[in-house]
Amino acid sequence: MANPFVHIELQTKDLEKSKKFYSGMFDWKLEEISGMDYTIINVGEGTGGGMMTNPVPGVPDNWLPYILVDDVAASTKKAKTLGATICKDVTEVPDMGWFSVISDPTGATFGLWQTKANM
Hints:
Elements: E1 5-12, H1 15-26, E2 29-32, E3 38-42, E4 49-53, E5 62-68, H2 72-81, E6 85-93, E7 97-103, E8 109-115
Parallel strand pairs: 1-4, 5-8
Antiparallel strand pairs: 1-5, 2-3, 3-4, 6-7, 7-8
């Protein structure tokens, strides 16, 4: 399938409470990323994700899906021409890849992800 969902991220106001809930509810394996306020979610089979403290005060806790693209800059630009709002422009995650966050014309928000291997 072209452009699959590859990562789903929880942005939460209470990271410790969320980690306790989801690891207990689903037996997910959680891995802290050294030097970052980020926790990887390993679900075993299927699309995994991550958890982080919500970076935007006042925004409710939410799950943000990421979709794989070959060129995040071109895809972000294309989304804008189709009426999307760019919430976070292309940003590098060192040694991993690049992402952007956009809202479609109806207000649904999602991320685009390009792995470093795609360069």
